[in-house]
């Protein structure tokens, strides 16, 4: 035996023991029915060619490794950002296990979400009985202050009507009549997790603002912030609040997951922690304006907010110099609060840091993939640093994103060679990287397969990050966040430089 109770081996060395090597070889020879190694290698080489790229881009039906998740994932993320709120998914429980694991693997936190576990009978007769029983169980067992309902594909395909079902559940006293149960239909065959975020945020606001709340006061200078789906929300929300507090701005941060996805280990399990209070959510209708930090996560929500007489403004992930400037200046314009000297100093320090390192970034080519707002911000920041976003890809980017990304690249000489890929997946990106390679890839952990295949180093800077720990605990928003992003990129650039014998050096 390669290991015993006295000599426990780590899996990395264990699976290199002769017994295991023999086992793998025997499995391959007897059961895998593989073509020869030479045939596999020849085919792998072919997938690196322009000819294969053309076939790959002619693909219309199949999607391979999309850089996006489905609508309910965004919906449950929003719901977790409210005080005492239990996200509830009407649909199949396998989907919900995926949402939980996706969020838990990224944030390294327990992520409570309940499912009403529709199975074959519900698919035939509808899921009313599941909602009636599920709401009652969730309310009784987990004692939330609010339950927020979204749907999986299964409920949408059979056409379950959430509004009618929840009303019936209340009639049957699953939950008290005045207990808040906002909902949103989140069909996964349309859009992505960013669409689900938008739908659910609108569902929650309209629940309070249309049914319960009245305009109670003339609009003052208070503003609302809607952060959008963000893997760095824990630190980014805190960073934006730090700016607003420093400026003395009166604000409501709507859908704030920074505490629930970052609970302390102090002996007390917190199923719910922090979040926007329900009273704050009700009162947010009285704000002067609502700012969406991520335009493509809040298109419908901001449209809805505007019908309540508020001003609205949308940004594309306020990271980097120009994007942070624009955000802070808008806040200042809306509230009349000046941007203090301490924040201006942070900006100056970032500019100084970029200048110090500019020689290492100038002209470096990057492939950037991720959500629409992130890719816009990342590309803009790369160009601010003198780097070149060569491929900008968003699987969940539509025509508006494509136009915006092209305009952004056209605005700088560093974007001149950039190409924008809307609706394409990571298998498309693989072809792009073989035929028109870049120096680095920026994206999520899923980019590690591209790194392995192409040899192009990956820098993890967006959701999900499963295979590295605690990145989300440090911000990417604002000047401080941009400084951290700069350091992550530089670290990788220097690691690559150190791999080369001619450029191995102590001082950079
Ligand atoms: S795409 Fe549909 S079936 Fe798949 S996890 Fe999402 S909701 Fe479930």
UniProtKB/TrEMBL annotation:
Keywords annotated in UniProt: ATP-binding, Iron, Iron-sulfur, Metal-binding, Nitrogen fixation, Nucleotide-binding, Oxidoreductase
Pfam family, one: DUF3364
Co-factor binding comment: Binds 1 [8Fe-7S] cluster per heterodimer.
One term under GO cellular component: molybdenum-iron nitrogenase complex
Cofactors named for this entry: [8Fe-7S] cluster
Gene Ontology molecular function, alphabetical: ATP binding; iron-sulfur cluster binding; metal ion binding; nitrogenase activity
Segments forming domain Nitrogenase molybdenum-iron protein beta chain N-terminal: 1-56
InterPro entries with a match to the protein in the record: ChlB/BchB/BchZ, Nase/OxRdtase_comp1, Nase_comp1_CS, Nase_Mo-Fe_CF_bsu, Nase_Mo-Fe_CF_bsu_N
Domain of life according to the entry: Bacteria
CDD domains in alphabetical order: Nitrogenase_MoFe_beta
PANTHER family, sorted: LIGHT-INDEPENDENT PROTOCHLOROPHYLLIDE REDUCTASE SUBUNIT B (PTHR33712:SF7)
Protein name: Nitrogenase molybdenum-iron protein beta chain
Species assigned in the record: Magnetospirillum gryphiswaldense (strain DSM 6361 / JCM 21280 / NBRC 15271 / MSR-1)
Top-level taxonomy: Bacteria, Pseudomonadati, Pseudomonadota, Alphaproteobacteria, Rhodospirillales
Originating gene: nifK
